[in-house]
Amino acid sequence: MPPKAAPPPAVALTYRLDGASVQLQWEMASDLSNKQARQAAFTIYRSRQDLSEGDCDDCPLVFEKVSTQPFVQTDGNRFSSAVALDPGYKYAFKVRLEIRGQAGADSNTIRFDVPAARQPSDKERS
Prior knowledge:
With 126 residues, the chain is mainly β.
């Protein structure tokens, strides 16, 4: 019996910052069969680091699962999800398609900073 083929990757992950959240958007390069689609879900992963820790280009990113979103067929295989953000962090996100618990390849990783809210000076408070 041949091994099961891995699910196709979610590709072309992009984002748009919207206040205190990020709108993640991605596309899939190929369609799923009806059977695969009924058993598929996207898992969204996030890595975040406090901006005060400074840059570390060689440090590995540690991702945590943020949410799982059931696969729902869309026109053009385009998908999206909104994720809340906290100010003062460097963020990285990636998306993975899973079918029956079998994980596909990671999407590309997107990265951005969310600066801490600026505190008003004493003159601005008065």
